[in-house]
Task: structure prediction
Amino acid sequence: MQLAGAALNAGLVESATMRVPRHVAVIMDGNGRWAAQRSLPRVAGHEAGSRAVGEVVHAAIEAGVEFLTLYAFSAENWKRPRAEVDSLMRLLARFLDERTGEILEKNVCLKAIGRVWELPEQPRERLERAIRMSAGNNGLTVILALNYSGRNEITDAVREIARKVRDREMEPEEITPDVIAAHLDTREWPDPDLLIRTSGEMRVSNFLLWQLSYTELYISPKLWPDFTREDFLDALRDYARRERRFGGV
Ligand code: IPE
Ligand code: IPE
Ligand code: MG
Result:
């Protein structure tokens, strides 16, 4: 998509023809290291990280991105110490309490992927409420990946397809990549054009395994709490210079 006029007027980018990714996915990593550098408890890093979320959401709106998927809690993150998991869940509930008004005001449509029904009641209820209240919005779609695992997502899709085959609703030969994509949590949205991972780690950590097939990767050395609007726009500028070939020439 071409850059929205508003973003151009705001001086975000250099040219009216800059290619803006429709869908940006972000692995928000480095909260714990940010806290350790300051001799603070890890939870202080997560608190600082939730402020960065707001900044990046605003930058995505300004730039005219349509879909922003944020990896907030992986299915593997339950392995962390109980106190850290509890504080992450409390922070999520608080974030939704504090930000739902702003979500509505900014015309953001909130969605979630992952086994969200397994989340504790407090964050789950607030999440469901924010999703319900913002369902009619047609601005930026923000997709929170919570209790998310790419392998679990594919496993759940395979189970559902297997059930349909068993019940004679579908023949095995009818299973195509499009059919598989239509059974994933992300079925409503296009695949990410750009994946940003902060804190310099060069791995996907079970995020959107199917959907990232041809996504452009951008690794930032910055820790997530230090990641700013300008860093996000730098990633978009970098993306605009990429040549995507999808296996062609
Ligand atoms: C990302 O920061 C936040 C979550 C995974 C919830 P980390 O907590 O992974 O921070 P590091 O990687 O230990 O620095
Ligand atoms: C990935 O970060 C998950 C989230 C950002 C929510 P992790 O910190 O959990 O990933 P690893 O352990 O470094 O692979
Ligand atoms: Mg990490």
In short: The chain has eight helices and six strands. Residues 27-29, 71-74, 77, 201, 203, 205 surround IPE (ligand 2) (CB under 6 Å).
